[in-house]
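Morning!

As promised:
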Amino acid sequence: MKQKPNVVAGVLTPLWLLFTLIPVYVVVIGSIATAQSFRKGGPLSWPEDLTAGNYGNIITGEFPLYMATTMGIALMTVGLNLLLSLPATYAVVRGKSQATRRVFRIILLGLAIPSQTVLIPLFWIIRSLGLYDSVWAIVLPQAAFGIPMTVLIVSSGMRSIVNELYDAMIVDGATVTQRFLRLALPLSKSPIATVSIFHFLGAWNSFLFPLIFTHSKEMTVMTVGLYKFIGAYDVDYPSLFAAVLLSAFPLLLMYIFARRWLLAGLMGMSGR
Amino acid sequence: MSKLVTRLTSARRQAKAGRGRQAALGPSVMWAIPAVVIYALFALAPILVVVAISFTSWDGVRPAKFVGLENWINLPHIAFLGSSVKIMLVLLVGSILVQLPIGLLLGVWAAGPQRNRAVLCTFFFLPLVLSGVAISIVWRQIMDANFGIPGQFAAIFGGNGNVLGSMEGAIATLLAIGAWGSAPFFGLVFQGAAKGIPQTLYDAAAIDGAGRFRQFFMVTLPQLRATIVMALIFMVVGGLTGFETIMIVTEGGPARKTLTTPLLMYYSAFRDYHLGEGAVIAVLLILAAGGIAVLFAKYSGFDKMESDLEGL
């Protein structure tokens, strides 16, 4: 069935493209303009002088340290989250007792708790546990808040493993742990990858937990580093733009080379 | 030799099968205990702790002092609380009116068969690689009165470029940021859902003489109902609890005119160091956001999620 050309889409898509690209243009072009020509020409004009110096400023400054801290914290968050959630998911899916069902229900409840509203009590808990300004002040709450999402997504994948496979392993004398390591985990690779990306993105971009639960330079993550930038009296916008682009660099790479996975992870849906 | 191996393995298998009968019971609840403990400590306990903190006077450093109902009695006198609820609701409704249609159109379009779709989608979903902080910082610069786009236009056409200096301008900017940074996310969600609508429904509608518009309203929208409800929950809960963007772009200004309730909570607690007062506001926000999420879930059948999965 051949359809008439879609006039509405023909008009709206170019407009939306323009709207999407203007900020992108400002950031990319601004990041290679000299501070002076950016101020003189304004954000939309093509700058008189181009320079790579803004990137030089950022790379030789503290920003690489912030990026390394962020990377470490993000990887630890994902790792801890999986370490806690995957056995729990296995118990929820394969467990026969009432208790495991109750666990699933309680954990799903957590999907309804918005993390911003519990900043104050978390601050108290973290201070009381002596975790303030440590890696754990960010990693533990982030990993904890991610548990419901991991359990929800991985459990739907793990449930689709047929009983016969478990039975075959039981006949072979495999223990509960062996069935987890050799059957349940390998066959849930895809949803596990998806939630890992989801939590990595969340941790990489997280802002309020690090802002409130840490304060030292060593614990400064990339988003907080960007935020400190605009606190300065005289903001060097071209360098700020260079920092913004560098902060998104790992995700941009993923966007170019593994877009399906990144977008699936972004939505927290199992990409297969 | 091979016979011996076979016999040995079968013997081992039989021996193990005896043990296996016990193992066949499946994992005990112990497997979930570490997750439950960490989850309870950092995600569930805060809900009780926030209530406790609301009965104290605490500056965040020295030990909290119990003050009974003082913070709660003082609730009506918290400065800007009333106006913060109003502006929060304005921004919430505005965001839905802007982001839901854009997200829907974007998603349904992106699910279609157009030839230029893949290339355009690459650009349309590009904002999703930036963090909320990066997006907010970029837009703050873009709307800057002196060095932003309004400033550049003011230099050419005259007038003042201080868009963020007026309440209307600040609200419009915040809505535009949502359209730029968040609407593509919903577009992505709707794209996934729209791809799942069976083509036969459209074919049937076409045979009945329905054009593109009627197909959109009679087939696409009803089929996306569950996804729309989910997106609405996201938007409403986000609007009731999120404050990163406002904190960075307008800082609640001009003159506290975009100071929303969650931002007020943050400022009371972590700028003015009245964590007791902040906790009172936090309790109200948790009740509002949680209540709405539960209502939506009940109404839309999302709470039956578990039984849906059970069938798989």
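Confidence is low (pLDDT under 50) at residues 14-23, 304-312 of chain B.

Hope this helps with the figure draft.
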